[in-house]
């Protein structure tokens, strides 16, 4: 009897110890799970409103799960795959999390209007594989716009073809219908299929680009990232670009070819054809012409010595009597 009681007591003690051990294990495991860090998307540098996000603008940072902000973008989420090419609607400091509410997706209907800086316009131009840099230009890049004209000047072959830069530092909003930078692996193929590029320009530059597209061929020159501003405010660069032609173009009137193209302004104007010379006035003959005289059956000619008067004399002179 005593041995059975001892066994029961021993089992109870073991059960209590096991329960305490399980509880301690679960508590430690829960504490470990709470302390596990989570990787969230943060700004690699200071980002301003209107920035088209590139991979170089984004970084991942580990933070405790207990400090995870609402709407933070975790590395394992599907949202993280669509952040490159999105438009930043709020400024974000370096190292701060980029929230899903801070961006506008490229697929959103309001993306294009939101991507434009205040007072700016969107204008599209046609491109080819060559003029579009072989598909290497992507949304968010900045380019210079070049105009090439064939003047067909047979008298001066050295000046028959001319190229000039009509706008600089234009921000690319879209390539084709895509506002997003293509994923790695299919970027070149996707951009090679594009036949238009859309820029952000000032209102007067939109007119100039449209006129230039009818003057000749437009080409793009890609600018270095090292000199590219990350913000979306393109007003200052565009004002610098317009100094070449805006002084001659009215801000509220039509834009002419000569306003934007120095080559057109330099073309010699055709001189008007000279009027034909008027015939010289011939002095009246002092002797007049010959006169045919008939006297009965006799015919002869007579040459007057002076021109006959064109009118009868006016005044008190007596009329001449006929003999």
TrEMBL record:
Residues 231-250 have a biased composition (Polar residues). Residues 273-286, 301-311 have a biased composition (Low complexity). Residues 38-104 form the SAF domain. Residues 231-323 are annotated as: Disordered. It holds the Pfam family SAF. InterPro entries: Pilus_assmbl_Flp-typ_CpaB, RcpC_dom, SAF. This is Pilus assembly protein CpaB. It comes from Paludibacterium purpuratum.
């Amino acid at each position: 009897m005593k041995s059975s009681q001892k066994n029961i007591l021993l089992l109870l003690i073991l059960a209590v110890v096991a329960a305490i051990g399980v509880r301690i294990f679960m508590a430690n495991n829960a504490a470990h799970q709470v302390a596990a860090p989570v990787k969230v998307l943060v700004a690699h540098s200071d980002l301003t409103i209107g920035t088209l996000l590139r991979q170089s603008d984004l970084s991942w940072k580990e933070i405790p799960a207990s400090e995870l902000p609402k709407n933070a973008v975790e590395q394992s989420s599907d949202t993280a795959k669509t952040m490159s090419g999105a438009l930043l609607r709020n400024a974000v400091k370096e190292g701060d999390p980029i929230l899903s509410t801070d961006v506008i997706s490229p697929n959103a209907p309001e993306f294009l209007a939101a991507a434009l800086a205040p007072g700016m316009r969107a204008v599209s131009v046609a491109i080819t594989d060559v003029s579009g840099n072989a598909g290497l230009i992507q949304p968010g890049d900045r380019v210079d716009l070049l105009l090439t004209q064939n003047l067909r000047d047979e008298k001066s072959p050295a000046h028959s073809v001319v190229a000039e830069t009509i706008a600089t530092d234009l921000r690319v909003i879209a390539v084709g219908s895509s506002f997003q930078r293509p994923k790695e692996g299919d970027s070149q193929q996707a951009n090679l299929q594009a036949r238009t590029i859309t820029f952000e320009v000032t209102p007067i530059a939109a007119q100039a680009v449209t006129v230039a597209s009818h003057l000749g061929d437009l080409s793009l020159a890609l600018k270095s990232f090292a000199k590219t501003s990350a913000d979306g405010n393109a007003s200052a660069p565009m004002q610098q670009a317009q100094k070449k032609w805006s002084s001659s173009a009215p801000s509220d009137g039509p834009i002419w070819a000569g306003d934007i193209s120095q080559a057109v302004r330099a073309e010699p104007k055709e001189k008007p054809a000279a009027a034909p010379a008027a015939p010289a006035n011939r002095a009246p003959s002092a002797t007049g012409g010959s006169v045919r005289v008939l006297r009965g059956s006799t015919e002869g000619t007579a040459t007057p010595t002076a021109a006959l008067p064109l009118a009868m004399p006016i005044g008190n002179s007596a009329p001449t009597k006929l003999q």
